[in-house]
Design brief:
The structure is a homodimer. Chain A has 22 helices and 16 strands. Chain A is of the alpha/beta class and about 725 residues long. In chain A, the strands form 3 sheets. In chain A, strands 1, 2, 4, 5, 6, 8, 9, 10, 11, 12, 13 and 14 form a 12-stranded mixed beta sheet that branches. The longest helix of chain A is centred in the C-terminal third of the chain and has 34 residues.
Chain lengths: ~725, ~725
């Protein structure tokens, strides 16, 4: 039994929504079927894919990573330009039409980052990350100090309050305890959400500054052996990172919604007018330095769940402990070098896009090097296919973004600069970022693409188990619950990587994939080649596997007769989310009334998706007219865009997608039906009304597009 | 609305079992009702209780505790005799007929307890508990070293393996990892179960020795501030304790089921024939010493959930780390001094018994002093009532047990010596042990007594909240689930204190009550008067409150016209447990067939309980004939004994109760329907058959007793 059959059965039994795939004709349910391919073309596709999967090679991937991690190459530095040029040359050597596309964006590098405890005793903190014997890279003086991009400059002396993860619940707990952070320096541990949300909450609660640290309970010795003995964060390791409020909008803060072209005349905001800039200084420190402050705090003992892994009882403060923080940032317009590499298809009308960033906080072996090293191998394989006579059906574009780390700057600029063209031509965006940190495949995707990911991973062997990546993934991700689920789970797309402008802003169907493992050196000096060779992927077999998956996904989306987008699956997620909203408001008549149109529109979307799926399943593709196929594919690719709202979400109009967005306060995780859900959280009936209307309208528009799909499919089948 | 009404309604709606209380006539549902009392007697009882509750006093309780903790007074020492004599004199001064009842039991005091790490480096361990500045008691040289009673003498040099809590699941995890403890010294942290079960499992897995330690995650700095800054265990604190396999039988291991009288001719087993003695040496150490060993272990990193609070990554071993342990125990027949104090009732035919132990590992301020200090105040109050002219209806016996810590020795001996009399006369046993460690009331009881505890606590104010202890308890214990439950929860009686021989062996309806709080100094030097004064109960208000509750419970059970035992509640617990067994075996035909008689007997018990409750509710007590009342009360008190099986549980015949027992491998917690449940765990059909028959027979016998109750009640009502 193949996966499609199983899904179909399960869906009919469990949710009553038929999951009829877009695979064409009865052949779809045979072992040899590939969704979206005419039976007559399956064998050729299988041969092509097999050839492609034979090419990526662990030694090549390792050499790629070695080159990518040869020196620190932070965005805004010359080294980042050198990496971009090398990448361009690599893609050119594979046969791609590759070029560097430059933008100019306003972001900071650190000049001074100082921290000291001044009471009850004095201690100099903000220590640099100590070098590790036997790992030469860690001795390099070019590694940037621990800092938070987009922290403003500032100097603060104040008592310290520990706020656990600095999440909304933590501030509620502080309220209960009667502890205010107003005028204080807030000390928050990393984890449970994006650091930019921690910064925003600290600012909203009137703290004067924010110190972030990595608690050993979360990614240090309490999670497992620390580097160089294991893959976890050593006590001296620091997590750098941006505090830009990307939950409001990502990209150059002075050019929201418009590409930051290097043109000196381009319109820019004044920094004081940018809605996504933090107003209090922040900095990250190591667990070792944090222990000095934390152990000096008095006040009430930390509530249940706030105690971390350091060897003393955590207290909240404030009390006699005082810190002095000084942050001087060098803000400037800095160059950003995206590398855009194109393999032209028979038609340039439809684009399959792959992407990852190339900038790194220091060496970035896992983040982003592992993804790029694998992407290069996938591109090399596609290039080899072209050399051996193959011509892509659709155009394949591989993007290497710069300045992702400061705030998705390179990808956002490119998407904004090419918005209309992307919305007209882009079929899908495949992202990989932290591509390999271990052996556990994981993925997030728009619902219509989840089965595409599942299908592709069925045809790629896992180097650890010998079974398929899909099988290994399924067993691993369902083991914890000790139950057999019929499908490996994919998450929803949240934030935190370059799919964000594609999906949330442009409505391009997107996915994000990679192999996960024990990874405690995130955004530190120690995320280097040695770490990867020792712990992440010693044989580079998972890099080669990721390349095979990326290549397979690209080929399928490129070559499919009909785009294998599963809108029945999308409908079932929408209906479930709408039901969730309905049960949240079951006892509140007014809210329930406001949400009624959302429920109706969800049902309409679901009915339309079912009709479209049935119509598509009835097509006999052998006789499919190419012009009609193109029209049908265009309609299929455009459904996601119909879910965008022209005015965006309230308070953050850059975010156009009405069904998915990163949570305003919930970290990297996706919020489903975010406008409505967050209005309910806040109890704001006026915003709820606006968001419900906007969501319902989007769902109705998408349903109409699905009706177009059904009509076109019926028309094609009738021939 | 009073609690009875609410329970009644909830029970009918939720479980369909009517919870008709034994409160007599309609008056029961009035605010002024007391279950078991004729309406005409309620006012007098209320006045009596009010008078009693006016007597206990914080200053007296504090003075009691100061005396009880004046010196270390471990069982088997002269100091324990001195405490017994003082207690006897106290009870005599209250007007009780008090005497010391001596037994002689075989147990050890330590001669040598040595531990050293010998590889990869040398370190002398087994450090004594360091004194605390400002707490004079902690400097006393008479405090016994850290040791485990009933550890055999032995000397072992072997590699060390860390086994987490040393529970059955942990050994299963080690199997999965391919790590064997055979021939090794096992290092287990305290928590998640009785240390005697840890010792038995280590022995069963062929370890050569066991080291127990207190991890700071469980009761040290990670739980909260450590003594003297807070109530939790300092890094140097050691948890002493017995490793006797009390889950097989408690009391003198050489005299199972028979009182250890000092008579030299009394029959004794050879130690090699005692089924409850450990065969591998064990010892407890501090977190500070454990850190030296744990940080020296290599081998695989600890699995998820095994990492504790020490500041490094835990590894399992074995590897180069070797330890040398030497334990020399001084086993001997040692005197045990129970203090039995009696307040004779109008009739000596029915006995209400209260008890706590008086022996302590060192000072035992919380364990057991706080319970004894409160019990003394309750007894003083009862004595004052007698002095003012009151005469108890039933006889009240207050017991102070010796040698509870080595293995419930004093109470077990007394119960065994007086078994027939107890079964003929004892109405209920009220235990308190660690009486006060904080403000949170908690209780365990046989199901028929749960409402008695709830009722009594409704009439005692909580010193912290001003509301009743019941209300405070209800709010506290249901807060975590953020739900309103109609009743404060009481646990089932497990093991770990002196109710065990009364309940599990003799079938006397029992309860165990106390006030809980943050308490990390259990069984250490630091469980002293200063700890209690600083953290446990600084004003001793909770001691006085516990005395009021103990006195109220004693008075109600003593004075009730009809014993207020709730067998409908018992039935609903039995039916729920039987349903649980049925759903465990739903898919196993053979097991289900074997369990059928248990389900039938449970239904019979339930039907009989309902009939008995209804008949009792119909009695108009004003005209109740005293002889008939006595007969009815005798029948009511005897139902629990009908649940005993003459042959006991398989493998541990001392445990006679078929519905409740401490789990053989699940720690202190109670196992419900233990014979059947554990046979299912082991998959042993033959034992399952035996246990199901024995349980079903017991339930049918108990149902018949309830039918007797119903008949007697109908007869009484017909008058």
């Amino acid at each position: 039994m193949n996966r499609l059959e199983r899904c179909f059965g399960a869906a009919v039994l469990l949710v009553g929504v038929s999951l009829i795939s877009l695979a064409i004709s009865e052949g779809a349910q045979n072992a040899g079927a590939i969704p979206g391919f005419a039976p007559t073309r399956v064998e050729a596709e299988q041969q092509l894919e097999a050839k492609l999967r034979g090419i990526p090679d662990a030694a090549h991937a390792e050499a790629n990573l070695r080159h990518l991690t040869a020196e620190p190459h932070m965005a805004g530095t010359e080294a980042s330009r050198r990496v971009a040029e090398w990448l361009r040359d690599q893609y050119r050597s594979f046969g791609f039409d590759a070029e560097i596309v430059s933008y100019s964006a306003w972001f900071a590098l650190p000049r001074t980052v100082e921290l000291e405890l001044i009471a009850p005793k004095h201690a100099r903190l903000a220590s640099p990350e100590p070098p590790i014997q036997g790992d030469k890279s860690t001795y390099d003086k070019r590694a940037v100090a621990g800092f938070n991009t987009y922290s403003p400059s500032g100097e603060v002396t104040a008592p310290v309050v520990y706020v656990n993860y600095g999440a909304p619940d933590d501030y509620r707990e502080l309220d209960t305890l009667g502890v205010s952070v107003e005028g204080k320096i807030v000390l928050a541990r990393y984890g449970h959400g994006y650091r930019g949300i921690k910064a925003k909450l600290a600012e909203e609660h009137k703290a004067r500054a924010l110190i972030l640290y990595s608690d050993p309970q979360d990614d240090g010795y309490a999670a497992g052996d620390a580097y160089p003995h294991g893959p976890w964060r050593p006590m001296g390791g620091i997590q750098r990172g941006s505090v830009l409020y990307t939950q409001i909008y990502p990209g150059d803060p002075l050019a929201p919604g418009a590409a930051s072209t290097p043109d000196a005349n381009a319109k820019r905001l004044a920094p004081s007018d940018a809605a996504n800039l933090p107003h209090i200084p922040s900095m990250p420190i190591s667990a070792k330095d944090a222990a000095v402050i934390l152990s000096a705090l008095d006040g009430p003992p930390a509530p249940r769940g706030w105690q971390g892994g350091l060897p003393f009882t955590y207290h909240i403060g404030p009390g006699k402990a005082q810190a002095h923080m000084k942050v001087v940032m060098d803000f400037a317009e800095r160059p950003v070098y995206d590398v855009i590499s194109t393999l032209h298809g028979s038609s340039d009308d439809e684009w399959v896009i792959l992407g990852n960033h190339h900038d790194a906080w220091v060496y970035g072996a896992a983040d982003p090097g592992s993804g790029t090293a694998s992407m290069l191998e996938a591109a090399r394989a596609l290039g080899e296919l072209v050399r051996s006579g193959w011509k892509p059906r659709r155009t394949i574009i591989v993007c290497e973004w710069d300045a992702e780390e400061p705030g998705l700057i390179g990808s956002t600029a490119w998407v904004e600069a090419n918005l209309a063209a992307l919305q007209a031509h882009a079929v899908a965006y495949i992202n990989t970022d932290v591509g390999v940190t271990g052996p556990n495949f994981s993925a997030s995707a728009t619902p219509s693409l989840k089965n595409v990911v599942r299908d592709a991973t069925q045809d790629v062997p896992d180097p650890g188990t010998g079974a398929s990546v899909y099988r290994t993934w399924l067993v691993h991700d369902t083991r914890a619950e000790r139950m057999v689920t019929p499908e490996a789970p994919l998450g929803a797309l949240g934030a935190g990587s370059d799919f964000c402008p594609f999906f949330d802003h442009a409505g391009i169907p997107s996915m994000d994939i990679g192999f996960d493992g024990d990874y405690g050196v995130y955004h530190s000096l120690y995320d280097d080649f040695s770490w990867m060779k020792k712990f992440g992927d010693p044989t580079f077999a998972y890099h080669a596997t990721l390349a095979r998956i990326l290549g397979t996904l690209a080929l399928r989306l490129d070559e499919a007769d009909l785009l294998p987008f599963d809108y029945a699956a999308y409908a079932s997620e929408i209906v479930r989310a709408a039901d969730g909203l309905a049960s949240r408001t079951a006892k509140q008549q007014e809210q329930a009334a406001i949400l009624k149109p959302v429920l109706d529109a969800s049902a309409q979307f679901s009915a339309s998706a079912t009709r479209a799926s049935q119509a598509l399943a009835a097509i006999s593709s052998q006789s499919l007219d190419p012009a009609k196929a193109r029209e049908l594919n265009h309609a299929l690719a455009g459904v996601e865009q119909a879910l965008l709202s022209p005015d965006g979400l309230s308070g953050r109009p850059w975010f156009k997608h009405t069904v998915y967005a990163p949570g305003s306060y919930s970290g990297y995780a996706a919020e489903i039906m975010p406008g409505v859900s967050e209005a309910l959280d806040r109890g704001d009936l006026q915003v709820l009304q606006r968001e419900a209307n906007s969501l319902a309208a989007a769902l109705r528009r998408a349903a109409q597009r699905l009706d177009d799909v059904a009509r076109l499919a019926q028309d094609a089948a009738a021939r």
